[in-house]
Amino acid sequence: GNPAVVGAKNSPRVRDQVLPTRNSSFRVIVHVDLDCFYAQVEMISNPELKDKPLGVQQKYLVVTCNYEARKLGVKKLMNVRDAKEKCPQLVLVNGEDLTRYREMSYKVTELLEEFSPVVERLGFDENFVDLTEMVEKRLQQLQSDELSAVTVSGHVYNNQSINLHDILHIRLLIGSQIAAEMREAMYNHLGLTGCAGVASNKLLAKLVSGVFKPNQQTVLLPESCQHLILSLNHIKEIPGIGYKTAKCLEALGINSVHDLQTFSSKILEKELGISLAQRIQKLSFGEDNSPVIPSGPPQSFSEEDSFKKCSSEVEAKNKIEELLASLLNRVCQDGRKPHTVRLIIRRYPSEKHCGRESRQCPIPSHVIQKLGTGNYDVMTPMVDILMKLFRNMVNVKMPFHLTLLSVCFCNLKAVNTAKRGLIDYYLTPSLSTTSCSGKHSFKMKDTHMEDFP
DNA sequence: TGGGGTTAT
DNA sequence: ATAACCC
Asked: Does A57 lie in the same domain as A124?
């Protein structure tokens, strides 16, 4: 395909190439996936749990468990009853409060960002890193006679033979070395183990990271791409094809990855829309040009609680106050301010699998200003707003039965970017008195303290 | 199925 | 505001 790639492929003198990342579309991506993350965090918190079968419980579910427990038959998302039956010695810890998991999760992302700033989070326990530039720099440091001494770190998918005359192989091997350094750093600095997959795009990196499973890594060389994607037993195993799309494809008689590869593009586009159809059909060939997008700080903060039954307004208000109190702490830490608040509910016969309803509204500016100060009561006005949203969704004069409440702060804005001026800054106690520790502290773009004696 | 997250429509 | 996707 790409002439630049073909030209580079047989070139023995890597250092003579100019603009290596611009004239080639070949990327090196790593997917880093922590082993049973919540269980690992719990074992670090309490080392006595280390050699015992451990499960992390949320409500009546074991959401994850360590490998001791897995050996004894416990699976992720298993009912507590079933898990105890399978494994009576199972130790359970409650994992409904995500605070420590979230904090550790961001420590991992920040550690990876030290290698290369382009890090995309996927959930709390997975990260993608684009290593293309880093690999290119290391290649340029190598003398041409050192190329023949480059070695792989970890497994090579499908036991494929390495060709050291193939520059793409060399790049991926250097990627595997960086992946090993990342896993070493995660273990040495944070005490965490995990898997890594190195490949030429996000899809393949993610698929290959799971091939050797706990605490190992695998690199995929281009010649084994089809082997990997065709090794999947069902289209639903392709990240990007979820429950709904899989059902839709099954209705068309598409069950295997090969079925999807060979299915009529025209018909698929008519059924799923051109965008989704073209995207997933490319995925079925292992093609994925989506970039690694730096996640940066979160776009939203939310807290939720599920329960068997909530059927009165007072009950709902109490739950909302609990959720809100935790959220206000988190928002205070972040340093930015949310400009929108949302309330989410789930009603009892949750007809749909994901039957949630929500109402949102802007947060009044006088309330925004009080956020993060701790000096003023922000609970009262926020609860008032949330209860109005609640009554907008739920007719409290009629019987109701809710099984979930969630509060979300979103539309986060840095405090000083445009509208806030100098006078405003000096008149707002929160900004001069609140400690904004951490890397998310706002920057004074147009304002400098030196300007004001 | 929990308690989170994201983007597209 | 919802619906899809991810963990």
From this structure: yes
